[in-house]
Amino acid sequence: MKGTVFYKMTGSGNDFVVLDGRSTTPDQWPGPRIAALCDRRDGVGADGLVILTPEDGDAVRMTFFNSDGSRAAMCGNAALCSTRLAAHLELGPSAGMRLRTDAGVVETRCLPEMARAEIRLPDAAVPKPVSQIRCADGERAIWVGTVGVPHLVVLVDDVAMVDVVGRGRPLRFDAVGGPDGANVNFISQPPEPGASWLIRTFERGVEGETLACGTGTVAAALALAAYCGIALPLEFRSWGGQLLTVRAALQGDTATEVWLGGQGRLVFRGVWEG
Length: 274
Known about the structure:
Blueprint: E1 4-11, E2 14-20, H1 31-38, E3 48-54, E4 59-66, E5 71-72, H2 76-88, E6 97-101, E7 104-110, E8 116-121, E9 124-125, E10 128-129, E11 139-147, E12 149-156, H3 164-172, E13 183-188, E14 197-203, E15 208-210, H4 214-227, E16 234-237, E17 243-251, E18 254-263, E19 265-272
Parallel strand pairs: 2-3, 4-6, 12-13, 14-16
Antiparallel strand pairs: 1-2, 1-19, 3-4, 4-5, 6-7, 7-8, 8-18, 9-18, 10-11, 11-12, 13-14, 14-15, 16-17, 17-18
């Protein structure tokens, strides 16, 4: 059978088409072809494309593209999915591997729980308060920072009431996020004591709401720890319903020992005829 063998993965609802880099290369995937593959009506459907290529020792190269075909330096949920699938394909050891991304080397490992993994991200600067953007009704604070890619974190009264697309799109293109803009993550406190924080995301490159954002969850946790006195580790429930956990150590304006844990589930595999 001709065509491209693919693996469909989900990380808390943030979904990806993943390819084995032993049988394809990134230069075989120009933007229009990626967009066709990720199209939810005429393609497989995904928030992004990942190509996993084994390198020396325990290293695996993770090349990531958004669903519009643009290349992105990093995606936390894609890294969680890549860890589980790389171990499944025996591209790297499940007990610990290194994912080489455009944002740097990420240590990862599979967790004993079914379909879960955790990744250690490079040290990151703690997000900074944004003074250039006025808070809208129901918004309490806005921070900006880079965890793999730029993120705006917006603390709101209730994420369920946020117009993620209507509010997220102009913020995504605001100059404060840099020349390529930023992901916009809306967060609200737990509905009851002991429950998880809630998060919703408008994601650049997808140009709409996605059901989870791993690096955005990390940015949100760091902002809450730095400015709201919330102790780490922190647990968030994505809009896809799954839990993401963030732990880190804050040393002044820098976060070290940054770990993100979450889902990396294989949904199905197939052959794309495009």
